[in-house]
Amino acid sequence: MNCSLTEESLGNGLTVLVSPAHRFGTDAFLLAGFAGARHKDRAVDLGTGCGIIPLLLYKKYRPSLIWGVDIQPDAIKQFAGSIALSRLEGVLHPLCSDLKQLKGKLPFDSFDLVTCNPPYEAAGTGFLSAMEAHQIARHEICCTTDDVCAAAFQLLKTGGRLCLCQRPGRMTDVLTAMRTHRLEPKRLRMVMQNPQSKPWLFLAEGKKDAHPGLEVLPPLYMTEPDGSPSRELSQIYGCEAGKDVNP
Predict the structure, then answer these.
(1) How far is CA 41 from CA 44, 114, 229, in A?
(2) What is the three-class DSSP state of 24?
(3) pLDDT the model gives residue 142
């Protein structure tokens, strides 16, 4: 095994391989929990990286089929290694592809759920990491929010859902792109450290060809008044309140 790869247990016999180039953070857990899934669902995670979101969706919801798509070959190899270690061949599927070029690689109009933890920085903004993998993950170099929504529209069946997370400053970009690509915004939730802090993330769901009507959910707080992890965050991580929830 590549010495730069380390194994992290997700519980329930699931293992994710992480590396300096392809790793994960709290936002992946928040997005997987927000998205949810049903056992019969067919799902696709765009920009999957190490494959953490497909693994989390499988752990909690057991959808029937999950694809993880990434443009970076090393990320897909890493995800494939996690699938093998977790013995999930036939349920989780890695695909190395540009999400703008999925025709003929995945069936269109056939998925129930698309998830994406997209680059947070718009093209030409923010500090560029020296590591190319981090540049692609953090900046809109290989895809934009509009590209993500366009791909999701192609993949989803009518009534299917796109769920993604993003920084609050990009909310207008996300909701505009969703509506442009006939993914009507249906759910929105802000994530805050505590009631006194500003939101640092939001979670949004768009539904293909749905009627207008946006539900703004109560905020998700990361900590309790005493500074310990909140009960909801602990539930999302699948551990008891008060225990360490750092991935």
Answers:
(1) 10, 10, 31
(2) coil
(3) 66
- The b-or-e profile of 210-235 (16+ CB within 10 A means b, else e) is beeeeeeeeebbbebeeeebbebbbe
pLDDT at position 63, please? 95
Distances (CA, A) of 204 to 183, 199, 217: 11, 14, 10
> What is the pLDDT at residue 134?
46
Least confidently predicted of 122-136, 204-218, 223-237: 122-136
Instruction: Give the Å distances, CA to CA, from 76 to 80, 101, 243.
Output: 6, 16, 32
**What count of other Cβ atoms lies within 10 Å of the Cβ of residue 77?**
16
Distance CA 148, CA 99 (A): 7
Mean pLDDT for the stretch of residues 178-200: 97
Going from the C-alpha of 212 to that of each of 26, 43, 182, 203, the distances in angstroms are 30, 23, 10, 18
CB 55 within 8 Å of CB 29: no
Structure tokens at 71: 């443009």
Per cent of the chain over pLDDT 90 is 81
Q: For residue 136, what is the enclosing H or E element?
A: helix 132-138
Contacts 24+ apart (CB under 8 A), 193-202: 193/221, 193/222, 193/223, 194/221, 194/222, 194/223, 194/225, 195/219, 195/221, 198/168, 199/168, 200/167, 200/168, 201/27, 201/30, 201/165, 201/166, 201/167, 201/168, 202/165, 202/166, 202/167, 202/168, 202/171
Q: Which residues pair with 219 in a beta bridge?
A: none
Give the rounded percent of residues in the chain with a pLDDT score beyond 70: 86
